[in-house]
Amino acid sequence: METVMEMPATGYAPLAVDPAWVRVCRLDDLADSWGEAALVKGQQLALFRVGRGDVFAVSQADPATRAHVMSRGMVGSRGRTHTIASPLHKEVYSLATGECFGRPELHLGTYPVRVVDGVVEVSV
């Protein structure tokens, strides 16, 4: 497992108990409504924490351009749906489903994510 985020020397185990899940970072390492890029099992991901505990993992690749920039997107919402706007062309995607609101032919990849004992884990 690799990640672009600095990991503290204590309180972090590199392997998840369940091999389907990979520990990526502590929940407290993610700032509210700010993206972080991570490389997990060779997949470039963008992680987002929204509010106190909603965490999302999506593909780092912008579906419109394939540039790896989604962690720099703008977090927002449409009603109760948490969203991310691409930093390049501003297409807006659901963080939960990857649905693109303006261009239905585009879809942002999403990954299962969970928080266990304060540690964010992703299944890729």
TrEMBL record:
Q: Manganese among the record's keywords?
A: no
**Per UniProt, which keywords does this protein have?**
2Fe-2S, Iron, Iron-sulfur, Metal-binding, Nitrate assimilation, Oxidoreductase
- One GO term of the biological process aspect: nitrate assimilation
Instruction: Point out the coiled-coil segments of this chain.
Output: none
Rieske domain mapped to chain residues: 22-122
One Pfam entry name? Rieske_2
In its UniProt record, a GO molecular function of this protein is: 2 iron, 2 sulfur cluster binding
NCBIfam families, per this entry?
nirD_assim_sml
Descriptive protein name: Nitrite reductase (NAD(P)H) small subunit
- The species is Arthrobacter glacialis
